[in-house]
Design brief:
- The complex is a heterodimer of chains A (263) and B (426).
- Chain A is of the alpha/beta class and 263 residues long.
- Chain A contains 10 helices and 10 strands.
- In chain A, strands 6-7-8-3-9-10 form a 6-stranded mixed β-sheet, with helices on both faces. Chain A has a 4-stranded antiparallel β-sheet with strand order 2-1-4-5, with helices on one face.
- The model of chain A has no long low-confidence stretch (mean pLDDT 86).
- Chain B has 426 residues and is mainly alpha-helical.
- Chain B folds into 2 domains: 2-86, no CATH class; 127-400, ABC transporter involved in vitamin B12 uptake, BtuC.
- Chain B contains 17 helices and 4 strands.
- In chain B, strands 1-2 form a two-stranded antiparallel ribbon.
- In chain B, strand 1 and strand 2 (53-56) form a beta hairpin.
- The chains are: A alpha/beta (263), B mainly alpha (426).
- The A-B interface holds A 52, 54, 78-80, 83-84, 88-89, 91, 95-101, 103-104, 107-109, 111-114, 116-118, 120-122, 124, 128, 131-132, 135-137, 140-141, 144, 149, 152-153, 155, 171-172, 174-175 and B 277-278, 281-282, 285-290, 292-293, 296-297, 299-308, 314, 318, 410, 412-417, 419-420, 422-423.
Chain lengths: 263, 426
């Protein structure tokens, strides 16, 4: 329980003269739900982009511990290699593949765990066919997990907003991650949808043994599901600890200026 | 009741897209005046250089006025109808619906295939040499279109220099045949391989580019290949080209001109069948899905674990393979190659075949090639209006069917629900 899966050591990210992240250190332990919060523009999404390989941090280390126990430094690694290691993410502004079906969207997620190449595709030999069938079944299972199996052959762009968010989670799950990074998964959802999402996140942790790091603005959700909370403001980590500790921290209250009584 | 319905339909046709009768009348009059003004110099004035007089053909002006007045109503009505149809789920055209229906019924599907295959096989015996020749070039464009479809339609990489790979294949055969007398069948796979190599060669430098930038670089690449062919006279014989290339043999047997054309037709047909087979399997495979994902969203695609570099290179290489093969066939068919056959115009036509046919759709590309290649051929009777009609067809297709003639349809996957625990309902 206590071993860490993601270990971020003092990373900085500069954009020209602007320091978007300043010495941020953070630690996510195995099977933990951690939340990263902060006012708009605090650098939360930049942080996600830095640890998933979309940006390269200016300095500092991002270390991950995949299931096999070997520690890997992922700074400057390509996003697809980071995903291959077992870190999957969703996006704040939904980035599905709009003109592909819901099922195909999830099937894309299995890409880095499958191997068949050009020859397999053209000859459609036994191995490729078996793999294809396994992909379809796995993807369908994941759609069931997030409750979208009815929409399997629907185009992704025709799904309602809340369901698109769930589809993104299913797609991320298809990459067989050990750490799931969710960027504002509840944004734009109504209270019922948020509640269902909360259940889903807890289920993912309990049944699949995933560690989850999420960025979220919905304080009610953050406080009720997370084991630890990290607060960013102006690119600096200003507080961390259990939800209770953080919500009573005067610096955090100051940063949020009155939004603190929310829970 | 019926009369009322007819009246409202008439009203809709006459006032589509306007506020009322007066407004639509005003607009049409303006359109008519504008067209009369635009066409005035060419339709009305004619200078008689022998008599040194000017003919004023006022009748033509009246024709243009009345014609554009009536057509403007039709145009507005069609546009309005298209807008209205947009919301409806059934946006499939009649042809698409028929095709979909036919492909769901196995017997109808088989029947359709047999009929198409029968016509394709019997074609050279029913039609003359001239027709067969046209059909060969149409088939060549289908092969090229399907190859480019991988790059543009599936992977979403806009390639304006596709003809370069076609030139590589054609010159590979022409040069090998001229210097060493190597035959068609040996070069066909080599030409394909050379196409692949050049595809990778182009692919590497443009990996970081997208959209407009990629288009410009590929355009430049296409021109470079053509300029090299034109100016490297010692090797490529320059603008005068290479003549007297051997036609393909059939296990060492040579044909006369007539039989040779029929033979060429069947070779091309076989190549098309192979292409359709491969492209169809590729697009519904793991790799095909990766191409689609790359087209849809590059960042999400990478974040989902797809190697962008590898996927892009694969698309370029495979697309170029077919161009290389088509090039070898082209050289064998015309027995003559020169750089003038590989201008930007060719790339533009191949791209139009893909876009007008429907990006990512095999049936669409075939339909696009048939229309774009055969229409100008059969319009030779109206020689002066040929390119005008050709252009107008393209404009009309793009206005009324921007998604192409036959859209790509996603494969419907079947899954075994019985293996899924807890799926009690259905």
């Amino acid at each position: 329980m206590s071993e860490s899966v993601l270990n971020v050591n003092e990373i900085c990210k500069d954009f020209g003269g602007i320091r978007a992240l300043d010495d941020v250190s953070l630690n996510v332990r195995s099977k933990e739900i951690a939340a990263l919060i902060g006012p708009n523009g605090a650098g939360k999404t930049t942080f996600f982009n830095c640890i998933t390989g979309i940006y390269t941090p200016t300095s500092g280390d991002v270390l991950v511990n995949p299931k096999d126990g070997s520690e890997r430094r992922v700074n400057g690694m390509k996003p697809n290699h980071v995903t291959e290691l077992g870190m999957a993410r969703t996006f704040q502004n939904i980035r599905l593949f709009p003109s592909m079906t819901t099922l195909e969207n999830v099937m894309i997620g299995t890409h880095c765990r499958t191997k068949s190449g050009i020859w397999g595709a053209i000859s459609r030999n036994g191995k490729a066919r078996g793999e294809e069938q396994a992909i379809i079944e796995k993807s369908y299972h994941l759609l069931e997990l997030v409750g979208l199996e009815r929409y399997a052959n629907e185009l992704a762009c025709n799904l309602p907003y809340g369901k698109q968010r769930r589809l993104e989670i299913a797609r991320a799950m298809a990459t067989d991650p050990f750490l799931l990074l969710l960027d504002e998964p509840a944004a734009g959802m109504n209270p019922q949808e948020t509640y269902d999402l909360q259940e889903l996140v807890i289920k993912l942790r309990n049944e699949y043994g995933l560690s989850i790091l999420l960025i979220e603005h919905d304080m009610k959700m953050v406080m009720s599901i997370s084991d630890s909370v990290f607060v960013l403001d102006y690119g600096r980590l200003i507080a961390s600890g259990t939800p209770k500790e953080v919500s009573e921290n005067p610096t955090v209250i100051k940063a949020y200026l009155g939004e603190d009584e929310d829970d | 009741m019926d009369e009322k319905g007819a009246q409202s339909t008439l009203r809709f046709i006459l006032t589509a897209g306007c506020d009322g009768y007066a407004d639509s009348l005003k607009r049409s009059v303006l359109v008519a005046l504008w067209f009369m003004f635009l066409t005035f110099p060419i339709m009305v004035i004619r200078v008689d250089t022998i008599e040194n007089t000017i003919d004023w053909r006022w009748m033509n002006l009246a024709f243009v006025g009345v014609g554009s007045f009536v057509l403007s109503f039709l145009w507005r009505w069609l546009l309005e109808r298209k807008e209205l149809m947009k919301g409806q789920a059934a946006r499939e055209s009649v042809v698409e619906r028929l095709l979909t229906q036919a492909s769901t019924i196995p017997s109808a599907r088989l029947g359709l295939l047999v009929v198409v295959a029968g016509i394709a096989l019997a074609f050279p015996h029913m039609a003359g040499m001239y027709q067969t020749n046209i059909m060969i070039s149409c088939l060549t464009y289908i092969a090229l279109g399907l190859g480019l479809n991988i790059v543009v339609g599936l992977a979403g990489l806009l390639d304006l220099g596709y003809v370069a790979f076609y030139a590589v294949g054609a010159y590979a055969y022409a040069l090998a045949n001229m210097h060493w007398g190597i035959g068609f069948w040996t070069i066909l796979p080599i030409g394909a391989l050379l196409g692949t190599l050049f595809g990778i060669m182009l692919g590497f430098p443009v990996l970081r580019l997208r959209g407009d930038y990629l288009a410009i670089v590929t355009l430049g690449f296409g021109e470079i290949i053509r300029l090299v062919l034109e100016n490297w006279g010692d090797v490529t014989m320059g603008p005068s080209g290479i003549a007297g290339i051997d036609r393909p043999t059939f296990f060492g047997i040579e044909f006369g001109v007539m039989d040779s054309i029929n033979y060429m037709y069947y070779i091309m047909l076989a190549l098309i069948v192979l292409t359709i087979f491969c492209v169809n399997r590729l697009q519904n495979s793991r790799i095909g899905r990766a191409w689609l994902a790359l087209r849809e969203d590059e960042i999400a695609c990478q974040a989902m674990g797809i190697d962008k570099t590898k996927t892009k290179l694969m698309a370029f290489a495979l697309g170029a393979t077919w161009a290389g093969m088509a090039g070898v066939v082209f050289a064998a068919k015309t027995t003559f190659v020169n750089p003038a056959s590989f201008t930007f115009w060719e790339s533009a036509i191949i791209l139009s075949v893909v876009v007008i046919g429907g990006m990512g759709s095999i049936r669409g590309v075939i339909a696009g090639a048939i229309i774009l290649i055969l229409v100008p051929e059969y319009l030779r009777a109206f020689s002066e209006f040929r390119m005008l009609i050709f252009g107008a067809t393209m404009v009309l297709v793009m206005v009324f069917r921007p998604q192409g003639l036959i859209r790509a349809k996603r494969k419907v996957y079947t899954y075994d629900k019985s293996t899924v625990a807890g799926a009690a309902n259905e």
